[in-house]
Amino acid sequence: MTGPAYGELRAVTPLASVLLEHNPSPMTLEGTNTWVLRAPGEESCVVIDPGDDDPEHLERVAAAGPVAIVLLTHRHHDHAAGARRFAELTGAPVRALDPSLVLGSEALGDGDVVAAAGVELRVISTPGHTSDSLSFLLSGPDTAASVLTGDTILGRGTTVIAHPDGSLGPYLDSLHRLADLAPDTAVLPGHGPELADAAKAAAHYLAHREQRLDQVRAALAALGPTATARQVVEVVYVDVDRTLWGAAELSVRAQLDYLRA
Q1: What is the pLDDT of residue 211?
Q2: How far is CA 143 from CA 15, 16, 40, in A?
């Protein structure tokens, strides 16, 4: 069995290649996927999520350039902390929903279209994991669509609702938006392997969230309505590795807010 392909630009679709950052953890899986997008024959590229502030990784991504523009799916450090250094390396502007992350350009909004390097990206607002989470629907000439989901949908497992910035109600709405994408729209996630069908992945996530909500309701029935998030975690996530209980507690806080609203 081969290990993760760190430091190697791997083609995934005719428009998208990925460079895996060497920052593995229980939260980042094998590491952060930095996506490099360009149509065949194009010299320049679009970079999605340059990753953490890791000079070696950023220099490898820059070598895939020239970089026309950098887009961020959300503010978390494993996706965005390297953006300023990367902009200095490449001279490329950085765009995100959060204006504090924008460099040399303007903030993004739902429905915006970014065209560069022969590809087109439609911005889809997908809050929930964080309040500023975006997905990007990628299309190009004579190619099937794909969607870059950041941490909204992962390539393996499920994502944390990063309470209090993240919120379950908006997250469920975001999953419904992704579930409405055309069949066979591939998922290019922020962590983990690519997936074949965004609608199916989103439907799976929605079912998982409903199951967790039922488990939290049952835990509250047993523990009492004023139970703390930690008490609920100890019941609902008893089969989950304890190294992930801190993240689980954030999601449970979001679930409790949702149920008590």
Answers
A1: 95
A2: 8, 11, 11
